[in-house]
Write a structure and sequence with these properties.
Length: 167
């Protein structure tokens, strides 16, 4: 699903630690951390305008490495669109500076209604995360390539912004 413009995206992530022992993790990227995200934004596809509302979750399987799943519903335009995106992200937590680089990959599937073909893409992200307890600020860039049938402009590059509360 090729978005002509992205008007806004706000992400709020609330992270909680799984109680495995009496010590709490030192960072939001430690093994066993779980995060929930909420997203709101808008998309313009052709002549159709959508309001996009989404929710996601991720889990850090080892320090710095998370697996996640995001889902969103697109409202207001036709056809109906539901988005599902599994993700894999690695934060370089051992870098000895306050700003931590990250890289990630994702697969995106849009379920498109009204008899239209579904759409698939793959992509990658790079960026920086800064943690100042309890806030995490992330800025990055994503590159996404349609792998479904595509006739024009099949690759999109766009900014990413994340604001998280870690506790």
């Amino acid at each position: 699903m090729r978005a002509v413009s992205v008007i806004g995206l706000v992400m709020l992530v609330a992270s909680t630690a799984l109680a495995q022992d009496s010590q709490s993790p030192a960072s939001p990227w430690d093994r066993g951390r779980f995060g929930i995200s909420l997203a709101a934004g808008s998309q313009q596809v052709g002549d159709e305008s959508y309001v996009v509302i989404g929710v996601g979750a991720r889990y850090f399987v080892v320090e710095g490495l998370s697996v996640g799943l995001f889902g969103a519903q697109w409202f207001g335009g036709q056809p109906s669109v539901t988005e599902v995106r599994p993700t894999l992200t690695y934060v370089f937590t051992r870098v000895p500076i306050a700003v931590k680089p990250y890289v990630g990959g994702f697969y995106n599937h849009w379920f498109v209604g009204d008899g239209f073909d579904d759409v698939d893409s793959v992509g990658g992200t790079v960026g920086l995360s800064w943690f100042q307890n309890p806030l995490v600020l992330s800025l990055g860039v994503a590159v996404e390539r349609l792998i479904s049938e595509c006739a024009d402009e099949c690759t999109e590059i766009y900014p990413q912004f994340g604001l998280a509360l870690a506790f």
